[in-house]
Amino acid sequence: MVPPELHHLFGGPTTGPAPASCEGFALVRLDAAAFRPLQRTAELAALVDALGVDSARAQGLGAPVTAFAKLRLSNDRVYVAVHQPAAEAAAPEPANSGGAPSRMAVGLLKVGEKDLFHWSRDGTLRELRQQRCVLDFYVAEAFQRRGLGKELFETMLAQEHCHPAALAYDRPSPKLLGFLAKHHALTKYVPQQNQFVLFDDGLTPPKRSAYDSVSMRPLTARGAPATRNR
């Protein structure tokens, strides 16, 4: 969990006021436009890196998926949940007060595009170009079971203008799979070698050709020798 002062880092507009169910939290979107002007801000780098480390530890990963050095050079977007106690939200502490930092970054959700190969249930291999993916999702343990993860996820969906079934999920944890089943009824998928999960509900049937049936294929496509014009 990362406890730096955040108002001087996130001075721009947030994604909007947090819902009543998450009172005391703000949800902030960081993308290339936000990263590049702040690329020399050590505090922001420390915040993103620490959240990435916490997320990797919670998921049992060998290395963080989210790191500031990579984010500022990519088109990925990161949604950060910032906690501020209600009493301090009403009377914020001055930046130079010398007191202990009160605002904390307690969650992140990273999305971006990847080129993926996917095997469907019928054995069809398809290439998915620039497939939008959930690449990292984490809420600090002390702040779970408050609806914060749901609000962070719903905020991302609204900002990205997408449906959860249309997303791919990189190595989703059992908690994330349970979350998607509970809140979005997403349960059916074909395990993939690349460990990305795409749910059946979000996959469109592949386009079929008139030659998909052997009886409709030209003779040359069925193994008959081609004839030459004389």
Termini separation comes to 79 Å
CATH superfamily: Gcn5-related N-acetyltransferase (GNAT)
**Any idea of the CATH topology?**
Aminopeptidase
Provide the spatial order of strands within the biggest beta sheet.
1-2-3-4-5-6
Net shape: globular
Top CATH class: Alpha Beta
Write a short abstract of this structure:
The chain has helices at residues 32-35, 42-59, 68-71, 86-90, 148-160, 174-184; strands spanning 25-30, 77-83, 104-119, 125-139, 168-170, 196-198. The chain is of the alpha+beta class and 230 residues long.
Write the layout of secondary structure elements.
Elements: E1 25-30, H1 32-35, H2 42-59, H3 68-71, E2 77-83, H4 86-90, E3 104-119, E4 125-139, H5 148-160, E5 168-170, H6 174-184, E6 196-198
Parallel strand pairs: 4-5
Antiparallel strand pairs: 1-2, 2-3, 3-4, 5-6
What does this structure look like?
This protein is α+β, with helices and mostly antiparallel strands and about 230 residues long. It has one domain: Gcn5-related N-acetyltransferase (GNAT) (Aminopeptidase), CATH 3.40.630. It has six helices and six strands; from the N terminus they run βαααβαββαβαβ. It has helices spanning about 30-35, 40-60, 70, 85-90, 150-160, 175-185, and strands at about 25-30, 75-85, 105-120, 125-140, 170, 195-200. It has a six-stranded mixed beta sheet with strand order 1-2-3-4-5-6. A hairpin with a 5-residue loop joins strand 3 and strand 4 (about 125-140). The termini are far apart. Residues about 1-10, about 10-20 and about 90-100 have low confidence and may be disordered.
